[in-house]
């Protein structure tokens, strides 16, 4: 099992503020695995893939190499990984002729920096694009971490980078759960696994053992000492919202919604997302209280706007995918 999985890339996905960074640090504590802090280059590059076209052509590969080197900055967050730009330049010269191959260069170099054999990537957003992810990395292993949506929303509201309202945060959580339902029915148990944030907190050893079994890697108690590498593995400017990673596993953030969400938010969430909560066995204690019509109208207007944006992004991606017919598989 371990030999079979030896070089398969690992992707951590889920709704934002669901524990993806904690899980990344846990896996980074493994002797064989290194997963970099979250970057933005993959999404930016994938959306621009038509600009580079057929990567079997030397001129197109050169254009793509130049894109990487010109975007080794804060916007793509590649600079956060502390990878030498010259190393990136040299690796890009010898990489394969597919988009997936170019996208794998950065996490591979990060893994190499720590002398680890397995690499991966962590970005919650990927849960919405698993079909595309598996086209780029057909042998990928995806770990979807799920957290009580009320806690995720309560946490998102406090984030300086979250510029949407709590209704958007609720719909964002629901979308992640819905994509998870599709993934569970579509991908094999060797490709995709779900794990609950609360299970990691309450039963850390059993939970991480199940993740290691999925990955085909040995479990070690040192994985639960992830807080020891937080300082070197989390960019300093992100530590304000990842401060919990500096401490051992504790339950301080479970149930935070009970004090951090407003009453109308709790009632609305419990009623509108009851199915998603119950499907993952999250307790609901709905209060028999009517919500003002204005809140209902705002929710449906926000939902309409959210869905419209979803369909727009999906449509554009489908059109680009038709036009970009070249190979994506990173192993080519």
Distance between the ends:
24 Å
As a whole number of angstroms, the C-alpha radius of gyration is 20 Å
Strand elements, count: 5
Overall mean pLDDT score? 93
pLDDT < 50 runs, ≥5 residues: none
How would you describe the overall organization of this protein?
The chain has 332 residues and is α/β, with parallel strands linked by helices. The chain has a single domain (2-323), classed as P-loop containing nucleotide triphosphate hydrolases (Rossmann fold). It is built from 17 helices and five strands. The protein has helices spanning 2-5, 20-28, 41-47, 58-70, 85-94, 99-103, 105-113, 130-136, 149-156, 166-186, 197-202, 204-215, 230-233, 257-260, 263-272, 274-279, 293-323, and strands at 10-13, 33-34, 118-122, 141-146, 192-196. A five-stranded parallel beta sheet has the order 2-3-1-4-5, with helices on both faces. The longest helix has 31 residues, at 293-323. The mean pLDDT is 93.
Lay out the secondary structure.
Blueprint: H1 2-5, E1 10-13, H2 20-28, E2 33-34, H3 41-47, H4 58-70, H5 85-94, H6 99-103, H7 105-113, E3 118-122, H8 130-136, E4 141-146, H9 149-156, H10 166-186, E5 192-196, H11 197-202, H12 204-215, H13 230-233, H14 257-260, H15 263-272, H16 274-279, H17 293-323
Parallel strand pairs: 1-3, 1-4, 2-3, 4-5
Helix pairs in contact: 4-5, 9-10
């Amino acid at each position: 099992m371990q030999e079979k999985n030896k070089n398969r890339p690992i992707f951590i996905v889920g709704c934002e503020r669901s524990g993806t960074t904690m899980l990344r640090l846990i896996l980074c504590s493994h002797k064989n695995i290194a997963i970099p802090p979250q970057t933005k280059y993959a999404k930016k590059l994938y959306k621009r893939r038509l600009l580079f076209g057929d990567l079997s052509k030397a001129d197109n590969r050169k254009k793509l190499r130049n894109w990487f080197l010109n975007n080794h900055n804060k916007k793509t967050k590649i600079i956060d990984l502390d990878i030498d730009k010259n190393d990136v330049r040299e690796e890009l010269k010898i990489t394969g002729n597919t988009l997936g191959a170019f996208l794998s260069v950065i996490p591979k170099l990060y893994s190499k920096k720590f002398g680890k054999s397995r690499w991966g990537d962590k970005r919650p957003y990927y849960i919405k694009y698993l079909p595309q992810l598996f086209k780029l990395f057909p042998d990928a292993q995806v770990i979807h971490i799920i957290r009580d949506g009320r806690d995720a929303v309560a946490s998102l509201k406090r984030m300086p980078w979250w510029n949407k309202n709590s209704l958007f945060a609720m719909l964002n959580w629901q979308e992640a759960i819905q994509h998870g339902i599709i993934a569970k029915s579509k991908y094999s148990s060797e490709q995709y696994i779900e794990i609950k944030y609360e299970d990691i907190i309450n039963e850390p050893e059993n939970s991480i053992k199940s993740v290691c079994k999925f990955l085909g890697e040995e479990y070690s108690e040192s994985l639960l000492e992830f807080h020891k590498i937080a300082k070197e593995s989390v960019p300093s400017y992100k530590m304000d919202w990842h401060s919990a990673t500096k401490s051992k596993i504790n339950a301080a953030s479970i149930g935070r919604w009970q004090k951090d969400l407003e009453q109308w938010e709790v009632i609305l969430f419990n009623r509108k997302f009851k199915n998603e909560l119950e499907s993952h066995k999250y307790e609901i204690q709905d209060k028999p209280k009517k919500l003002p019509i204005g809140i209902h109208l705002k929710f449906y207007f926000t939902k309409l706007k959210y869905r419209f944006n979803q369909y727009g992004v999906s449509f554009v991606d489908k059109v680009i995918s038709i036009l970009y017919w070249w190979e994506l598989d990173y192993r080519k």
